[in-house]
Amino acid sequence: MQLKRTVTLKNIVTEKFKEETIQALQEAIQQVEQARNTIDFRSRIYLSELQRTDLNQAAEFRRRIEAEKHRHDELKEQLNAQLEEIRNAAIGDEVTQGTLEGFVEVQVGDHLPTRMSGAEIVVKDDVVVELRETPPEAEAEEAEEAPETQPEA
Hints:
Blueprint: E1 2-12, H1 15-53, H2 55-88, E2 94-105, H3 112-116, E3 120-124, E4 127-132, H4 136-145
Parallel strand pairs: 1-3
Antiparallel strand pairs: 1-2, 3-4
Helix pairs in contact: 1-2
């Protein structure tokens, strides 16, 4: 039987990877800043008009705008943290780029938690260089080490 599972995507840091990733992160940060500035500018105009007609609606609008601006600020912080991580990464380091979904074949006797985890795809300059899977021996060892549960009386 095949089951869907999460596969970790890792990148080996190269000069090319660092340059491309730093550029992409800087562009994303600029886009977030521009979007926040646009929201700020347009909302001020709309809010001033709305305050003249309906104070309750204006208060609700302000709350939503502040929440949206806060979301943009958090996203910018996350992007800056990723940028710093990439800048500090040494050539040859592995960095986690994200996760994908994949399928795994399971059979009777497999240790399910081990089969559902432990898969990684390692990429170097956009080329897959390694596929990592928890070996079946490790599965058997983990299954043997797992304490057997006894029903309570």
